[in-house]
Amino acid sequence: MADLRPRVWVSQPLFGDLVGRLREHFDVIETAAVGTHPPEEIAAMLASCDGALVTLNDRVGAAEVAHAPRLRAIANVGVGYNNLDVAALTRAGIVVTNTPDVLTETTADFGFALMMAAARRISEAERWLREGQWRQWSFETMLGGDVHGTTLGILGMGRIGQGIACRASGFRMRVLYHNRSRLAADVEGACRAEYVDYDTLLAQSDHLILVLPYSPAVHHLVDAAAIAKMKPTATLTNIARGGIVDEDALADALQSGRLAAAGLDVYEGEPAINPRLLALRNVVLTPHIASGSLATRRAMVALAVDNLTAALGFGPRAGDPPT
Ligand code: DGY
C-alpha cells in the first residue's frame, strides 16, 4: 500500500528526543553525519520529501528544489538564513522558517564575552601561560584595553544587538549603533543607545561588534577603508556572518597594529579559517558557537520542529487557543 504520510528530511543529527516529535506526523529520514552536503545530495534528498529541517551547513536554492514536486516547507535551525535562497524558494511555493527569539540572550552573552576576551587578551594570555612562558608576576604582563566606561559600537540593532546594548549599560558604556533603520525613541531609550551614521560608529567606537544579518549588500562592509576609520586601540568582534568582514584587511590591520584586537566566531569560508588569522595572537577565534548553550540549541531545534510541523499543516493554526 502506498505510504500516505508526508516525508521529511533532517539533514544532520540533532537532539533525537526533539526530532523524534516529527514521527508523530511524518516519516523521517535522518542523515547520520554532520557536514556540508553537496548540492546533488541535497537535491536527491529533497526530491522525495514534503519538508526538511536544515542548518547553516545546507545551501538550498532553485537548483536543489527543481525536482522536488512535493516539497512545501524548509525549516532552518538558526536565526540567520543566508544559506537559503528565500526568493527562489518562495517562487517555488516553499515556506521557509527560521528560529528567532529563542537564541537572543545566549548569543548576546557570547558576543559580550568575545568582545571582553579580545579586549583583555584572555585567550592570548592563557596560551602564553600554557606554553610555560609565565616565569614571574610582572606589572606589565598582557596589558589590555578596558571595557567598562568605553564606547561600544553595535552594527545591526535587531534583537541580539539590543541584548548586547542592555548588557553594556551594566558596564557603564556609552552605546552607539548603526542600523538600516533607526529604532523607535522608546526602544533607543530602553537600550540607552544613540543612533549614528556608519562612519561615526567606526570612528568613535572603542569596541565595535557586528550583529547584522548577512546579505550580498553587506559583503565586506568592514573592509580596509572601514578599518582605517577605526581607532588603533579599538577591537572588532564578529558574531554575525564571516562574509561581512574582509579577513585579509582585518589580518593586515591586526598585524600592523592598526587595530588592537579582534574576536571572531564566524568566517567567510568556515570551517576553513584564513591562515593569516590563525597565525596572529591578537585575535580570539571560536567555532561559530555564539548560540551554543545546551538549552538554547535545544530550544532552536524544538522551535524548528514546531515550525516544520505547522508549515506542513499539523501545527496550531492562527486563532487556536494557546495550550
Ligand atoms: C544562527 O542562528 O544564525 C546562528 O549563526 C547559528 O545557526
TrEMBL record:
EC number: 1.1.1.-
CDD domains: GDH
UniProt GO molecular function: oxidoreductase activity
One Pfam family recorded for the sequence: 2-Hacid_dh_C
Protein name: D-glycerate dehydrogenase
InterPro entries per UniProt: D-isomer_2-hydroxyacid_DH (IPR050223), D-isomer_2_OHA_DH_cat_dom (IPR006139), D-isomer_DH_CS1 (IPR029752), D-isomer_DH_NAD-bd (IPR006140), NAD(P)-bd_dom_sf (IPR036291)
PANTHER family: 2-HYDROXYACID DEHYDROGENASE-RELATED, GLYOXYLATE_HYDROXYPYRUVATE REDUCTASE B
UniProt entry keywords in alphabetical sequence: NAD, Oxidoreductase
Top EC category: oxidoreductase
Keyword Methyltransferase set for record: no
Domain D-isomer specific 2-hydroxyacid dehydrogenase NAD-binding positions: 112-290
D-isomer specific 2-hydroxyacid dehydrogenase catalytic domain boundaries: 22-313
Family: Belongs to the D-isomer specific 2-hydroxyacid dehydrogenase family.
Keyword Iron-sulfur listed: no
